[in-house]
Amino acid sequence: SAVISQKPSRDICQRGTSLTIQCQVDSQVTMMFWYRQQPGQSLTLIATANQGSEATYESGFVIDKFPISRPNLTFSTLTVSNMSPEDSSIYLCSLAPRTTDTQYFGPGTRLTVL
Amino acid sequence: GNSVTQMEGPVTLSEEAFLTINCTYTATGYPSLFWYVQYPGEGLQLLLKATKADDKGSNKGFEATYRKETTSFHLEKGSVQVSDSAVYFCALRGATNKLIFGTGTLLAVQP
Phi and psi dihedrals of B71, rounded to 5? Predict the structure, then answer.
C-alpha cells in the first residue's frame, strides 16, 4: 500500500481567493491524479499529473482554474483559483503505482467557499 | 467511453441481512474492476478488486465476481453488520489508467 498525506485537511475560504492543496506520498510514483467529490456526489477526475510534463485535464476542467504542479515523484499541488461557492467539495489526490493496478487515495481536503 | 452504473441508494437493511449492490460497466478491452468504500467522515478505501474475467475479489466478508458475459461486478455480503454502513463505489480502470467511478450507493444497516 501507499501512504498519502494532504494539507490542509479542511479550509473555509472567501469567494474570489485561491487555495493550494499539497499532496505528499511516501514512495516515488509516476502517475498522480486529482479528483473532486462534490457534496453527496461521486468522484470526478480533474486531471492526471505526471512528473516532468504538463498535467492532462479532463473535460470541464481547465488549467487556469485548477493549476497543478508536479515538481518531483513524491509531491504535487492543486490550486483552486478564484473560488466560488460551487467549488465547495472534497479534493483528493490519488496515485497508481506501476507495480499494481490498485489506486490509492489521500484523506482528502474538505473545502468550503463562502 | 468507459462508464460504470451502480444501483441507486440508499439501501437500508437490518443487521445480518444479505446484501447485494449491483454494478455494471461499459468498457473497451479488459478493464480491472474495483469496489471502494467510504465510511462516514473518512477517506476512500479499496475494498476489493478483480483484474480478469471470472476472478472473484473478496475482503471483510464482501465478495464480487468479474462477469464479462454480463459486464457486471455485483457486490455481495452474506450477513451485514452495523459497522458496514458506508458509501460503496464501483469503479473500473481501463487502458488509459484512469479510474472511473459509479455514483456510489449509501448502505445503512440498522441494529
Answer: 45, 55
Q: Supply A98's cell numbers.
A: 506501476
Q: Give yes or no for a contact between B64 and B75, defined as CB atoms under 8 angstroms apart.
A: yes
Distances from the Cα of A8 to the Cα of A12, A20, A61, A112, B65, angstroms: 11, 9, 22, 12, 38
DSSP string, A56-77: EEPTT--TTTS-EEEEETTEEE
Record: contact A106-B32, CB cut-off 8 A: no
Residue pLDDT, tens place only, A25-59: 998 888 899 999 998 888 999 999 988 788 999 99
* Contact residues, chain A, for B34 at CB < 8 Å: 102-103
pLDDT tens digits for range A79-111: 999 999 999 999 999 988 777 778 889 999 999
Among the listed residues B22, B2, B4, B25, the one whose alpha carbon sits nearest the alpha carbon of residue B101: B4
Task: HSE, CB side, 13 Å, CA atoms: give it for residue A39.
Answer: 7
User: Could you tell me which chain A residue has the CA closest to the CA of B102?
Assistant: A42
